[in-house]
Design goal:
The complex is a heterodimer of chains A (325) and B (399).
Chain A: E1 2-5, H1 6-20, E2 24-28, H2 44-48, E3 53-55, H3 60-72, E4 76-80, H4 91-97, H5 101-104, E5 114-120, H6 135-139, E6 145-147, H7 152-164, E7 169-174, E8 182-185, E9 198-201, E10 206-210, H8 214-227, E11 232-236, E12 239-241, H9 245-255, E13 258-265, H10 270-282, E14 291-295, H11 305-308, H12 312-323
Parallel strand pairs in A: 2-3, 2-4, 4-5, 5-7, 6-7, 10-11, 10-13, 13-14
Antiparallel strand pairs in A: 1-8, 6-12, 9-11
Chain B: E1 3-4, E2 9-10, H1 48-73, H2 87-95, E3 102-104, H3 110-116, H4 120-127, E4 151-152, H5 161-174, E5 181-186, H6 193-205, E6 209-215, E7 218-219, E8 222-223, H7 224-228, H8 235-240, E9 244-249, H9 253-270, E10 274-279, H10 298-305, H11 309-319, H12 325-347, H13 367-382, H14 388-391
Parallel strand pairs in B: 3-4, 3-5, 5-6, 6-10, 9-10
Antiparallel strand pairs in B: 1-2, 7-8
Helix pairs in contact in B: 1-2, 1-3, 1-11, 1-12, 2-3, 2-9, 4-12, 5-6
Classes of the chains: A alpha/beta (325), B alpha/beta (399).
Bound molecules: thiamine diphosphate.
Thiamine diphosphate sits between chains B (108, 156-158, 185-189, 214, 216, 218-220, 282, 286) and A (29, 58, 60, 82, 86, 89).
Enzyme class (chain B): oxidoreductase
Organism (chain B): Pseudidiomarina andamanensis
Catalytic activity (chain B): N(6)-[(R)-lipoyl]-L-lysyl-[protein] + 3-methyl-2-oxobutanoate + H(+) = N(6)-[(R)-S(8)-2-methylpropanoyldihydrolipoyl]-L-lysyl-[protein] + CO2
Chain lengths: 325, 399
């Protein structure tokens, strides 16, 4: 075991993947010798050469088009989009191409070797173009996998699974936690299953569901609620697509209550999808309406970031409201 | 030589590949590095008043950039992005335009905005995201915008303004406004699909637009030559799209000024879009989040310091006896005091009222946003200590 922060864990996973197969390539804006603006790819050029870890020109649609082509050739393409907010120029390549490659060709061709890494989320004084959580746009597209790790241990195991998974994976990294989240991480290779939720804390009164950076808010809120005698079960969804309905439903059947937290705006967000499905699965077990604690339906405002952010206090209030419904 | 009738092409009978190097676009330079006019060059007409206004703006931007980088280091603002070394490019081009021409910037054109008359207080209000910021404190520092000064608000996603400039200019053409749009972007942004779409459409529709590429050698850490593009830079792309194109020394105020003047004439009088590539160097880091020592050498930076556009123009002014070294220093000190005073005062202005969080999403806030705001306010009332910037003004002292 070694102490690593989230960035180091990602770097370590990339290192292991590139050592394992010389068909793994890592690229994106500034990801070459400089190591990326967050330094997630540092050291890789020195180790594997500038043909395997490199800078691309500044064009997201090009990066994803190139990555699709490279993956369809049988390589493992790990493409970085510098900020989740700038993934939209590549939307067409991801949504119409990556996601549908296998289906539209009858599996004559596929881009299973594709992994898209991108930092997402707020809380870094980034205003509305460095704070978005765009997972829901992609969750609406069949054919992609979407993964959002919450800490270094999860990030390493999930990224290694994502790179060698046989499907294109969108891997969204909580940038607020890049350096803030530190933990014990095995130095050797290990993988974590995609599509599997993780019960972070067991409890009997209410289920609190989160993913990525929001898990920390759920845990803090659960600690506050514990002081009121409320025993929360905290679940990290981990994979947004496909997602682990069974684990969540099982928990809700036990607790009878569900609070879902999500950083993105409430309307059309993934929390809504979860709420609808769990209502289907668990209707007769529910003691209170499923609650969503989400961002407002406005762009992410710089000067009111603190107010806008889905913090532990908002989650705590939702837990109490659900308990006293 | 035989001609193909349909395409009007000369016909050859042996395979001929055209190499990119066949089109090597030269660079216009008028003002030499020592502040004299280059032999064979013609100094553009410029009266003393305009020359001093340009210099004044240059000095102001130098101070603003320097002070705000310091303010960021002290934790007083979250982010800053300087235009050190590129003042001639943005100020020289803005000076060649009419005040009612539209400017669409990338984020390193504070010089153009200052030239138009954006005040030091207005700069500070944006940088501190306070309630007097015209953008209502919603965007990161340096994302200025001002309708009154015909300066479109900056967006962070790169290159999106370039096709918008084509569209804006089309509107100007149809309105017979006699105006044009200038659109700035970096050589990195010129890799984006938006750039190519914009130039193609501008050339096809023949719109009065000036596309001004600041080629400063780097896009964050990515060097332009070999990693951003192969070949002869951005200028040949203008030619390829069927557009009048010129490359200038971006550190030469006169070359930028003259080229933009001529470009404006072509744009406004003949509806000819123009591409200008200004060759320059980003003397500072990309932004305050960047450390350029990780990807380039001190020697390289020093070599460019010798080409400093502000020093070069000042030398010329001194040669005209339009300003003395002492006067320049005195102006500098005065401006510095004004910048510091404005900084101190903007810092104490509160952030916008929380009610503004739901404004401007639509023309008027729909019901669901009003409901969300009410819920947020109720929450803040419950935990005032957690939201110190807004809690005290949530009721009473309301706008
Ligand atoms: C679509 C998009 N992708 C990535 C970024 C992140 N980013 C901000 S500035 C920058 C480099 C821009 O370089 P260039 O256009 O050459 O301008 P310069 O900063 O050199 O003036 C990058 C990659 C962004 N803002 N928008």
């Amino acid at each position: 075991m070694a102490k690593m922060n989230l960035l180091q864990a990602i770097n370590n996973a990339l290192d292991i993947a590139m050592a394992k197969s010389d068909k793994v390539y890592s690229f994106g804006e500034d990801t070459g010798a400089f190591g990326g603006v967050f330094r997630a790819t540092s050291g890789l050029t020195e180790k594997y050469g500038r043909h395997r870890n490199f800078n691309t020109p500044l064009v997201e649609q090009g990066i994803l088009g190139f990555a699709n082509g490279l993956a369809s050739q049988g390589s493992y393409a790990v493409a970085e989009i510098q900020f989740g907010d700038y993934i939209f120029p590549a939307f067409d390549q991801i949504v119409n191409e990556s996601a549908k490659f296998r289906y539209r060709s009858g599996d004559e061709f596929n881009v299973g070797g594709l992994t898209i890494r991108t930092p997402y989320g707020g809380g870094i004084a980034g205003g509305h173009y460095h704070s978005q959580s765009p997972e829901a746009y992609f969750a609406h597209t069949p054919g992609l996998k979407i993964v959002m790790p919450r800490n270094p241990y999860m990030a390493k195991g999930l990224l290694l699974s994502a790179i060698f998974d046989k499907n294109p994976v969108l891997f969204m990294e909580p940038k607020r936690l890049y350096r803030a989240s530190v933990g014990e991480v095995p130095e050797e290779e290990y993988t974590l299953e995609l599509g599997k939720a993780d019960v972070v804390k067991e409890g009997k009164d209410i289920t609190v569901l989160a993913w990525g950076a929001q898990v920390e808010m759920a845990e803090k809120a659960a600690e506050m609620a514990a002081k009121d005698g409320i025993d929360c079960e905290v679940i990290d969804l981990v994979s947004i697509l496909p997602w682990d309905v069974e684990t969540v439903a099982e928990s809700v059947r036990k607790t009878g209550r569900l609070v879902i937290t999500q950083e993105a705006p409430i309307t059309g967000g993934f929390a809504s999808e979860v709420a609808a499905t769990i209502q289907d699965e668990c209707f007769l077990y529910l003691e209170s309406p499923i609650a969503r604690v989400c961002g407002l339906d406005t762009p992410y405002p710089l000067s009111h970031e603190k107010e806008y952010f889905v913090d532990h206090l908002k989650v705590y209030e939702a837990i109490k409201a659900s308990m006293t419904y | 030589m035989a001609k193909d009738k349909q395409h009007q092409l000369d016909i050859v009978t042996k395979p001929q590949f055209i190499d990119g190097s066949a089109l090597k676009i030269p660079m216009l330079q008028i003002l030499a590095e020592d502040g004299t006019i280059r032999k064979g060059a013609e100094q553009p007409e410029m009266d003393k008043e305009l020359a001093l206004k340009i210099f004044d703006t240059m000095q102001f931007i130098r101070i603003l950039d320097e002070r705000m980088i310091a303010a960021q280091r002290q934790g007083r603002i979250s982010f800053y992005l300087s235009s050190l070394g590129e003042e001639a490019a943005s100020i020289g081009s803005a000076a060649a335009l009419s005040d009612d021409d539209m400017i669409m910037g990338q984020y390193r054109e504070q010089g153009a905005l200052a030239f138009r008359g954006f005040t030091v207080e207005q700069f500070m209000n944006q940088l501190f995201s306070n309630e007097r910021d015209l953008g209502k404190g919603r965007q990161m520092p340096v994302h200025y915008g001002c309708a009154e000064l015909n300066f479109m608000t900056i967006a962070s996603p790169l290159a999106t303004q370039i096709p918008q400039a084509t569209g804006y200019a089309y509107g100007q053409k149809m309105d017979k406004s006699g105006n044009c749009t200038i659109c700035y972007f970096g050589e990195g942004a010129a890799s984006e699909g938006d750039f190519h779409a914009a130039l193609n459409m501008a050339a096809v529709y023949k719109v009065p637009a000036i596309f001004f590429c600041r080629n400063n050698g780097y896009a964050i850490s990515t060097p332009s030559q070999g990693e951003q593009y192969a070949g002869d830079g951005i200028a040949p792309r203008g030619v390829a799209y069927g557009m009048k194109t010129i490359r200038v020394d971006g550190n030469d105020l006169f070359a930028v000024y003259k080229a933009t003047q001529l470009a404006r004439q072509l744009a406004v009088e003949e509806n000819e879009p123009v591409l200008i590539e200004g060759m320059s160097y980003r003397m500072a880091g990309h932004s305050t989040s960047d450390d350029p020592t990780g990807y380039r050498t001190r020697e390289e930076e020093d070599a460019w310091r010798a080409k400093d556009p502000v020093v070069r123009f000042q030398k010329w002014l001194q040669n005209q006896a339009w300003i003395s070294e002492d006067e320049a220093q005195k102006n500098y000190d005065e401006k510095k005091a004004a910048v510091l005073a404005a900084l101190k005062s903007a810092e104490t202005v509160p952030v916008p009222h929380i009610d503004e969080i739901i404004e401007d999403v639509y023309d008027t806030p729909p019901k669901h946003l009003k409901k969300q705001l009410e819920a947020l306010k109720a929450h803040i009332r419950k935990y005032p200590e957690a939201y110190p910037k807004t809690a005290s003004r949530i009721d009473g002292g309301d706008k």
